[in-house]
Design goal:
The structure is a homodimer of 422-residue chains.
Chain A lengths: L3 E7 L7 H13 L5 E7 L3 H5 L3 E3 L5 H6 L22 H13 L2 E8 L1 H10 L2 H5 L4 E6 L15 H22 L6 E6 L6 H6 L12 E3 L7 H15 L2 E6 L10 H4 L13 H13 L3 E5 L2 H5 L6 H19 L5 E9 L4 E8 H4 L20 H7 L11 E2 L2 E2 L22
Parallel strand pairs in A: 1-2, 1-4, 4-5, 6-8, 6-9, 7-8
Antiparallel strand pairs in A: 2-3, 10-11, 12-13
Helix pairs in contact in A: 1-13
Chain lengths: 422, 422
């Protein structure tokens, strides 16, 4: 059988290590040219497939592909376009087949989170249901760490490390100043539905009194009275109070705390900004001077402080995806399987996309401490290995050297266009 | 002459490298026990001297003192207490003499910014004016980079590196998502009066189209129309727009932009939060989806991504302070003297505190590009060497290992107390 081309796309919010998965896919494919002729990447994710806007990765040098391993963001562009069911979005699936057929694409690699694995699952069915045989393998990626079956999700470990390192550093700063100045520090992190990222801040606390003293999880309804009492206790006991707050924290009415405080100066209520609300609450009730930070994209793009474990896993999952595909596996996703906590050992396994699609892994209740403001030992055992190791990018002129690919287009073969529905 | 003790204190906002200067002071003093018997650190800065709350650094191991070199924050605590003139604050200077006399202190090392060098200068005069001879040496430190004579100030280079690295990483992220999602990213950085830190973001832009596309300086009055036109141009040309904004940006009425937007939900106007104001302005006028980050303390405590140049200079300035003192120099401050830009060479010099006190070094007008939104080649030549080199701290369990000293108190010798006036 003559080799087919592969389609690879990045989907959803990008991370510090999604390009490491891309690197694993392309480097592995280049070793198997008897099976995979070329890897075409979707420009801006699946939109690139639908609009026949494909990137010819064979025009990138081996060195540039290798540099993807240490480059954050999505090198080919990503998007948040979600394909619905085969019946509902039949035109989109038929268009995919039209483009795949025109470019002799026999493999589909989709690198993303929950929605993307659902899409992968649907694409894996087009062989049987729409008569276009294709080998479809999902590659996990999400800072939200909410995919099932896999022990963890690439991208999460590096955000976790960034958050733990950052809250430790800023807390050292506050501790120095607390006697006569700032006593409260609030750092806002991502996580609208699950507190995985906020929980990672807890790793910085290794012994009694260490920061952070309080973590506010989306899983725990905000209790102002208990919170203020805990803040006051920390200030009186340790001299200061360091707080990690998840953007998704809600009040007893179920509103995001970030919005419940009221509208901003322009009358808008956009999520992102719970840190100032929490800080002001402390000031108003306890009178302590505060500082706050919102890490936003800095946390998920911080390749300079990426977890080596995370980078290694991201690469290996990309590599495994190609190996699974050329071995004839359809509708699967490679996974990280934990062998042991300490010493930490892991291996690559795989799951059926049917079991992954539409299942969201929440943080177990037993990972949150009884008072709702910290993490348990079980949580620490789970999280600790994921931030292990440093994997520094190369520097020039004091700055990390991240690659920007040529991203040359594959000449179009179709004379049709396709309009993306929003 | 039998050796005297030295007093060392950290002052003002702490940095990623002020402890490297402390390390230089203490390690060097330990090599000159014929001149300096012991180094007593002020607990929480000068307040420790006034309240006779001294820390006995001889109780710290050589290994822990060495670890100060890679530990951010102020290991002995800092404060923002400013001593006024010798006449106005005579009681405070007399109290200092009382404490110094009781503890046989003959050297005074004060590690801080402009106000602290002014204090150092005043303390240097107590020999002549109040009859207590003391050798007084200031050690420069400030992320604001606004001390005169010295080429740059320890602490600044590491913030500069953090800001340049962070805006590069976050901008890679935004570039990936811009086609269908976030098009605007705004990162707020420190700098109420001078744009040095914001300017450092410009180092990430190495060629046409690179982020950041816009820098908003406190030195340049905010022009909404020109700003929005530039944002729109960037989005239309590069697909996205990445913005670094200094917390000190002001509008045509001279108000901080962060405050001019209105009060927050609680009716307060606390500085810190210009990023959301700028982002919302873009959304309201151009409709682009945005994200924003406020780095706050993360930027000045980010020892994990410190500039090696900065760490080296901080250490050498601490060392030089001791060497200047034991050579009999009073009322001086060691400086970084630039020998050449490229290859970057520097040496340690020194200035008279009389020439340092009350002089603020502003950013030269020729460092800001003609349109007011970027940096010039001259600025780049100045800034580039300051972020050179990485100096990673040691890690354990995936986290940087920062030292917390024992900070044992020196037994009090006085039966008097002193009340600090606020």
């Amino acid at each position: 059988m003559s080799p087919k081309n592969a389609f690879y796309a990045q989907s959803g919010g990008v991370t510090a290590v999604i390009n490491a998965s891309a690197c694993g896919v392309i480097e592995t494919a280049r070793k198997h040219t008897d099976k995979i002729a070329n890897v075409y990447a979707g420009r801006n994710g699946i939109i690139g497939a639908l609009t026949e806007d494909l990137i010819d990765t064979s025009q990138e040098s081996d060195a540039d592909i290798a540099a993807l391993r240490h480059t954050p963001s999505g090198a080919f562009g990503s998007c948040r376009h979600k394909l619905k069911g085969l019946d509902e979005s039949k035109a989109e699936y038929e268009r995919l087949i039209e483009v795949f057929k025109a470019h002799n694409i026999g493999y589909f690699f989709y690198n993303g989170g929950g929605d993307s694995q659902d899409t992968s699952h649907k694409v894996s069915q087009i062989g049987e249901k729409l008569g276009y045989p294709i080998t479809c393998v999902g590659i996990p990626k999400t800072v939200d760490n909410d995919l099932p079956i896999t022990d963890n999700c690439p991208g999460f470990g590096s955000v976790a490390k960034y958050v733990a390192v950052s809250i430790r550093e800023a807390s050292f700063d506050v501790a120095s100043m607390a006697k006569t100045s700032t006593k409260i520090f609030v750092m806002e992190v991502m996580g609208r539905h699950a507190g995985w990222i906020a929980a990672a801040g807890g790793l910085a606390c290794e012994k009694e009194g260490d920061a952070p003293h309080i973590i506010l999880f989306p899983e725990v309804t905000f209790n102002q009275e208990k919170f203020l009492a805990k803040v006051d206790h920390a200030v009186k006991t340790y001299g200061y109070c360091s707080i990690v707050v998840s953007e998704g924290v809600r009040n007893t009415e179920g509103q995001f705390l970030a919005e419940a405080g009221g509208k901003d100066a322009f009358g808008h209520a956009q999520l992102g900004g719970v840190a100032p609300v929490v800080a002001q609450l402390v000031k108003d009730n306890l009178g302590y001077k505060y500082h706050w930070a919102v890490a936003d994209y800095l946390q998920r793009s911080a390749r300079h402080i990426a977890s080596k474990t995370d980078v290694d896993q991201a690469y290996e999952l990309g590599k495994a995806a190609v190996e699974l595909a050329i071995a004839g596996n359809n509708a699967v996703m490679p996974t990280v399987d934990r062998v042991s906590d300490e010493p930490y050992e892991w291996k690559i396994g795989h799951a059926n996309l049917a079991d992954v699609a539409n299942v969201e892994k929440m943080m177990p209740a037993e990972y949150i401490s009884e008072d709702g403001f910290g993490i348990t030992d079980a949580c620490r055992r789970y999280l600790q290995p994921l931030i292990q190791g440093e994997d520094y990018p190369p520097y020039k002129n004091g700055l990390p050297q991240y690659v920007t690919l040529k991203n040359a287009g594959v000449p179009k073969k179709l004379d049709t266009t396709f309009e993306i529905k929003k």
